[in-house]
Amino acid sequence: MTNDAVLHALREFVAERDWAQFHSPENLAKxxxxxxxxxxxxxQWGPDFNAERVAEELADVLTYCYLLADKxxxxxxxIVLDKLATTKAKYPVEKSRGTSAKYDQL
Amino acid sequence: MTNDAVLHALREFVAERDWAQFHSPENLAKxxxxxxxxxxxxxQWGPDFNAERVAEELADVLTYCYLLADKxxxxxxxIVLDKLATTKAKYPVEKSRGTSAKYDQL
Amino acid sequence: MTNDAVLHALREFVAERDWAQFHSPENLAKxxxxxxxxxxxxxQWGPDFNAERVAEELADVLTYCYLLADKxxxxxxxIVLDKLATTKAKYPVEKSRGTSAKYDQL
Amino acid sequence: MTNDAVLHALREFVAERDWAQFHSPENLAKxxxxxxxxxxxxxQWGPDFNAERVAEELADVLTYCYLLADKxxxxxxxIVLDKLATTKAKYPVEKSRGTSAKYDQL
Lengths: 106, 106, 106, 106
Fold this sequence. Notes:
Chain A has 2 domains: 1-74, Helix Hairpins (Orthogonal Bundle); 75-106, no CATH class. Chain A starts with a helix and ends in a 10-residue tail after the last helix. In chain A, helix 2 packs antiparallel against helix 3. Chain A contains 5 helices and no strands. Chain A is mainly alpha-helical. The mean pLDDT of chain A is 96. At the A-B interface, helix 1, helix 2, helix 3 and helix 4 of A face helix 1, helix 2, helix 3 and helix 4 of B. Chains A, B, C, D: It comes from Gryllotalpicola daejeonensis. Chains A, B, C, D: InterPro entries: dCTP_Pyrophosphatase, DCTPP.
């Protein structure tokens, strides 16, 4: 389960600013994409990166992910574990070891 | 702190498949962006959505976020809380209440 | 065919700055995604937009698209027409009229 | 100016399917981001790529870019040239030659 303290802090932050009105699932999904682009910008010209900047941009992506999970009424950690079970079935160890090929090309 | 069980499950999943070799920070950041695009696709033509599909795509974004945090050696929940402190300072309650304007336009 | 004047101007811009070394197809693809995120930011909280800002962000996406097409040795307009032929076959007029459903759900 | 034949073909494709109703600027901007993610997926695990697949995904990004430009009433090639003039001013040749640094760090 996502740490209660994080969810509580995010909810309070949003409530104090009366921002729930902007946080439709659609707008939160757009926000995840926008912040993912800023995270990617840390690696625009190659693999070297500034760890502090990456952590900050990653935090922005995660923040919108948590807000969207909360809006959907799902637990972030639980949906990750649920999806992992599905992915494990699509990528059996013996077929997928050491290759980055997609499941439909294994 | 991110739930140990989730991190443990993700690390085991990657180790069993020998996939750490593909998981450079750069590749994980690309993966976050790619999955964020798939999440956005749930809302491509409007605000209506299939909750189950959104949860699955959100799980994919979160999975790569957790893997990237782990690779950086930071705790996902902690960087969210740290960034929240910064954001609170940029968006004081009295100035930002009820508006979606960016901090430099408040 | 993409207007020669545009391609010529872009190539000259890159050559003068000795930037071709950064413009691997991978880096250009990342750049398209990053700029697409900035374009999306114009619509983060809803459908209203600043037309001038949207045009500027769209121009950035297009610029990296043209540079990537040029790097691949393909003509931007031609690949659009080629893909349109494929898409027309996937979305026959009689089945797809007035619906935003994906081809596999028509 | 964008080739008339391309614009004509795209407009006819949309009109025949009665899809203009889905093509708000916001939805087209989301679509550009979604397709940019699919383009990026061609490079998810490294710089190697399938040129045919990249060209197809790039065509999808370009298609939505052209549709958005058309919706805004601007010419794709013209906004690229306009933006290039701005970018040239931000990145003077003598300061930016051979470096991928952002303009605010030159």
